[in-house]
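RECORD TYPE: inverse folding
INPUT: structure tokens
STRUCTURE:
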């Protein structure tokens, strides 16, 4: 699975590098919030959409464990609120709203899996390190809908569902993972 994902990422990078001389409003990258590959399409009006797909494979470490596959899917709507060019450094401040679905497996033998849904809203500062390469982070609010934990038979093992209102990140942190975008 790692080889397939690596091949896909390298293929996307090679295709995007071939267009490196003329950046457009399309980008591929790594989204640190959902830990996945992202694709952005922005219009001249400053409104855009972003799709995210992330996979994680946990190999078993012993006889008491199973392999687990985690899948993250997300979609965001973006709006450029402010942009600037200051010498060689340029950047944007984007507003965004989105939804994410995380299907999280467990590598404990005959154990539980869970599906969580997040609803996000906030701001995204974007700084261009090169003409085609930007780095972003996200700050904002999140509603996390934790699903019931499912047992190995597919039935709810316990009533573990909950709704959590929080800022992005762990604890009191409001900064979400760092993301990179390559515009092509």
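DESIGNED SEQUENCE:
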């Amino acid at each position: 699975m790692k080889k397939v994902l690596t091949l896909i990422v390298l293929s996307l990078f090679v295709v995007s590098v071939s267009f490196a001389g003329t950046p457009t409003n399309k980008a591929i990258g790594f989204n640190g919030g959902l830990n996945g590959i992202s694709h952005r399409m922005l219009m001249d009006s400053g409104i855009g959409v972003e799709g995210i797909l992330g996979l994680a494979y946990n190999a078993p470490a012993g006889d008491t464990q199973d392999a687990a596959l985690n899948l993250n899917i997300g979609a965001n709507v973006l709006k450029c609120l402010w942009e600037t060019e200051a010498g060689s450094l340029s950047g944007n401040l984007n507003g965004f709203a989105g939804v994410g679905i995380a299907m999280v497996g467990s590598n404990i033998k005959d154990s539980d899996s869970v599906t969580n849904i997040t609803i996000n809203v906030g701001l995204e500062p974007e700084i261009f390190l090169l003409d085609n390469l930007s780095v972003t982070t996200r700050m904002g609010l999140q509603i996390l809908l934790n699903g019931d934990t499912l047992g190995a038979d597919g039935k709810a093992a316990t009533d573990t569902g909950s709704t959590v209102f929080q800022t992005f990140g762990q604890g009191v942190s409001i900064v979400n993972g760092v993301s990179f975008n390559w515009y092509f």
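NOTES: Strands lie at 26-31, 36-42, 47-58, 68-86, 89-104, 114-128, 133-136, 139-146, 162-167, 179-183.
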